[in-house]
Queue: 4 jobs
Job 1
Amino acid sequence: MKQRHLLPGCYVLLFIVLLNPTVARGVDITQQLHRPLSNSSWRQSREEADTLLRIGEQQYAAGFADKAVDSCLEALEIYHSIGDLKAQGLTYDLMAKAYIQLNRFKEGENALRRRLAIARDTKDFASQIFALNNISTLLLQQGEASAAGQTVAEALTIARHVKNIEGEGLSLSNLGLVAARLGDYNKAIKLYETALSFRRQTGNVLGEANTLNNLGDAYLAAGNYPDTIGTYGAAMRMAKTSRDRNNQLRAIDGLVTAHSTVGRYQRAFDLLEQRLILAQELQNLREELKSFESYAQLYEQLGNYPTARNFYERAITLARTLADSKQEVLLIDRLTQMLKR
């Protein structure tokens, strides 16, 4: 989860959509005469919407979530007009991620619930499982642990009913997140370990890395630093091998926190250097901003205020580039508080 840290770890929301092949059906003469769009017009509209959705994905990956939302809204209008429910589901998935990145949680939740409604209408049980898990993660991020637990429990029930091993692993992992939020780290660890067994059965490397990161979060919150470092390290190596950049960045963040907490500052700086290089390679300005912010906090922790100020200022510049006024104000406040010392 899908899935920086709002809890002891970072929840990275996991949005997975399983599409079934479209079934071709014949139409009679009357239906053909009353179709709102010709075949060529339908294809043209579909291609335009698909292009908008691809652009939205690229904008989101580059850190421009606001632009991704705009592209999704345009694509949705077309998909609605041609009645393509499955494409609408994909678009709502991306829109939800973009809204959440912009901290527009209510709009993100609305997009996820629309996605869930489509999955129910089409009796797409796999997509129901993943939509419920995404809603649960969002509720958890907003502090609604009880509602999150009920939602993911529904997902787990569906997964077990239809024998969806992948969905069962994801749901168990997210139940671990709920337990962690409630402060029951031992229960969370057990749930994560069970989830790992399911994820390994399906060869879901991305899911396994995500659950390993969750497990690292639980160990970190429990103050078990050796297991924290070992678990995050396993997640980082797995994510790097599979080119899963989100989990790789998340594992690095966990390792930076763990190593700096136990006084291994040089290792923390080495990891931050890797993080910044990766963010720049991805041309992801938001992740680059997070790297600068982490550098600033670590230098501030060490009492090196001039260098910390430099990194805060670089992060502020990127926040302005991203038009993220909330993050800009937060960074300026941190810098101001530091300079008063």
Note: Confidence is low (pLDDT under 50) at residues 1-37.
Job 2
Amino acid sequence: MTLRGAALLLVLVLAAVAPGFANTKQSALDAKIRAQQAKLHDVHVQLNEKRGALGAAQAKVGTIAEQLAIANRNISTVQGQIAFLNAKMHTTESNLAWTKVQLDAAQKTLARHNDALKRRLISAYEYGDLGYLAVLLQARSFGDFLERWNDVAYVVKANEVTIRARRADAEHVEAIETGLVTDENSLRNARAAADQQTIALSALAQQRQNLLEVAQSEKQNVAVEVGELEDTSAAAEAALEALVREKQQEEDARRAAARRAALLAGESLPPEPGAPGQLLWPVSGPITSPFGMRMHPVYGRPILHAGIDIAAAQGTTIAAAADGRVIVAGTQGDCGKMVAIDHHGGLSTIYCHMSQIFVGVGQDVQRGQAIGAVGMTGDATGPHVHFQVMQDGHPVDPMSFLR
């Protein structure tokens, strides 16, 4: 339980009517305590609302930050694809340029051959070119004619083969060029699509970044408001504690006068409470969190642990640490189901996170009497009893009072 919860308990303790005052009018001090209690209650309501808003703002920041991270990862992936496409495009363009050089050379060579063959070979083959006829007519014998005829036929045949080879080469180069152009167009389209995707993702990332900045600003504003309310709550608690101490002094004076009167009348009185070793353990079990500053398991920040946590099984009976009167029995914020007992002399005990409560406000209880059962209501991470001792309005280490 927090120091804030302890201060609220003190308000409830002193709001209870002390023995001997049940039938009297509430004093001006009681009215001040009630007013301060109402003020502190309002502050706590606002503080809880703002803490809820802060939690929601933190969750929103986390969600948007994750969305931004996803968008940035997608951008990196697309940029990697674009880099690969650019490299592939460069290779394709280089291949295309070299193919064009080869095609140009092949076309020039083919053009020269075609021109020559038009003038001679093709004419001789199709139209009977006179140059070849003159060669044949210059034969000196029939054997020479046959030899010249074979040479002319060989030349014509060779040129036909050359023409076919050149044409095949040209067609092959053209086919390569067509394929490369197709690849180039495909790559250009893919790169254009990737560029468009990058633009869209960048716009989305910028939008997420803007939302993140707004969410972080909202979270910061709410955190400032929570801090201001915590300061206001601390100031209200300090004022309340001052009223509590004044009320306790008034009550202690009344009780001291009553004891003196009883002693003068010869009555036997119990010892004054508050001595070390006087209180009974409320349950038997290990201490899982001692008194003092600690990192709160629910709030996640350093905070005063104003009591001790004693682990026990769910439903275990909780006993009153000493004789006294029940002044709180009900649900009290982060303490969950709670019982507080006033033991007089400025000493009171608090029992938090109960699953059941067996006593009511105004009921007198005896040391060791069952007042409730172990649970984990309120801000608890497991079944246990938060046991707190208050001395003169301040939380003290319960280990100094337990036997």
Note: The chain has two domains: 25-269, 274-403.
Job 3
Amino acid sequence: MTTDKHFLTEVDGPVAIIKINRPKVLNALNLPLMEDIAELMEQYDSDDTINVVLLSGNERAWAAGADIGDMATASSDEMRKRNQFAVWERIKKIRKPIVAAVSGFALGGGCELMMHCDIIVASETAKIGQPEINIGVMPGAGGTQRLTRALGKALAMDVVLSGRFLTAEEACKHGLVSRVVPKEHWFEEALNVAKIVAAKGPISVRAAKASVLNASELHLSEGLVEERALFYSLFDTNDQAEGMTAFIEKRKPTFSGT
């Protein structure tokens, strides 16, 4: 495993692992860290040997918000010029699946980063929320928008306006996380999910991810048009031929990513 000041990286076969490593501040997110995460993800996105990115915190905290010290004395003009949310758009554009391994606090910017991931495996210890209201601001990296799409207006309003935390079970019940696992197995299970996805045909996985994301951005009729176009495009790939032939021959497919 390679290490930097604020993150650790490791490659496990076709899975690239990024672990946020700021334990003294509960993995609080600052702009240098976010830029490094985006750069790493972009590198993995263009690496043909990597099929899935696994993003993790530690057992105590996935990420307990943004680094408030970076913003406490800033003016609105300074914040606009800083344009700190541009880096989040880079993460949004990653084509390969991002699996989140979430344990402990996932708050504020941490919750927003979690919602940028595609499959969220949460420990039963996870505490999830957007408590920015408690310090006189509001979510700014997509928290009000993605949370509302996941939870619905009523619950999103409760979480955003009261600042309360959701348990992992509540978050799963309302569709904010994919699955909840015992605290002893939170990272192991997330890695297992990442490896399962990484074993699928990488072209079809990228297409399926894009199509699911379209569902929250496009009108249904437009989303169906895009879905069909992506579906048809897969019939020009070797992976489609291999996958269907392997099914007929009752064997495990060997996908090449072509």
Note: The mean pLDDT is 95.
Job 4
Amino acid sequence: MKLNRLTLAIVLASMGLTAGAQQTLRLSLGEAQQYAVEHNATMKNADLEVKKAEMERWKTLSSMLPSAKATFDYQNMLGYEMEMRMGGAGIKIPLNPNGTFGINASVALTGAQIVGTMLQNLAIEMTDLSRQQTEQQTRSQVKNIYVSILVMEETVGLLDSSLANLESLASTSQAAVNVGAAEQVDADKLQVQVASMKSSINSTKRSLQMLRNSLLLQLGADVNSTVELTTPVDDILNLGNAASILTQPFHIENNYNYQLLAKNEELATRQVNMAWMDFLPTVALFYQYSAKTYFGKEEGMNMTPPNMIGASISMPLFTSGTRYASIKSAKIAQQETANSRRQAEDGLRVQFNQLQYDLVTALENYDIQSRNLDVTKRVFDNVTEKYNYGRASSLEVTTASTDIISAQSNYIQAVMSVISAQVALEDLLNSNN
């Protein structure tokens, strides 16, 4: 008995720990997007890429700055004496232990280093643009999933209400069969429709759970967390805002893809400048300090100057046309990037027109499906009411319930089409830039 109580206590404690580990996030759409920007793994990597590009720039800059190093050498000839003879006489010179302390400082500067620093600055700008584009994509993905969850929740509510009506009709029909006032086949048809409605609800709930899991992944939140969405779908599905986007002009220079292509073309131009830098000389300066100390009783001979400075200039003369070929290749690459940018510019303008058409079509379809859902629901309520009074057949009820499931599915698709088209057009315009 004590063992069973202990086991039960352990199980309850573990359940409490698990429940305590779960976190409930109550997020509006804006809060969810900001949460994803701060916690999403892809966004974190994009931020790290910017920092990495900055470190690469500092590596290039450091190659242009003076470098210095200190050295210390120690020598011991183990008592050896050097003998020098002049005529018949000889002189012995002891080679005492000695040590040399030195400092060497140097700096070298080339045109390639200067252009390389400019290239690194440009690389940082491109990396930061990619980070901003990643943030834009993250916000758009969160919005799409957020709206999908809200619409799915509305769908479950509507289908649950329709299911309750169907189950009531099926129960009434079966009671009528039991007293001989109706045929069993009519009751069976309604039971099949009830099962079909339940299957549709269960499928929708499974899809809803998948969407919630996807939202947690996009947010970068703990997978055991739960999310409560506080922004109503009507506030997001603002038809006035969607229509106003259609009137906005397309400033292509605000588009991230175009900005990256423009930066890439600028990078190709800098590469041409880099190739020309091979013709410039390399300038180098150095300073050397050397202090030699003898550790014996007698000073030895010291022929090392304590201070020395120097300078050098090296000029490339002949490389068998390699540098000219490099310049020509860089110019060709520059022309290719310019052609790609112009082609992409035309493609973006075509895409802008197409996305406008897509949004107009989505808005028209949403209006149709919204009205269709309202009519279908009223038809279903009317048929079920008639069936209660014997003025409608089970076939009419079955048809009406099937129609409302289909109408709801079409309505969901219409809502998502409006949101997707609106988000795609907003991303292309990047009007907040």
Note: The two ends are 69 Å apart (CA to CA).
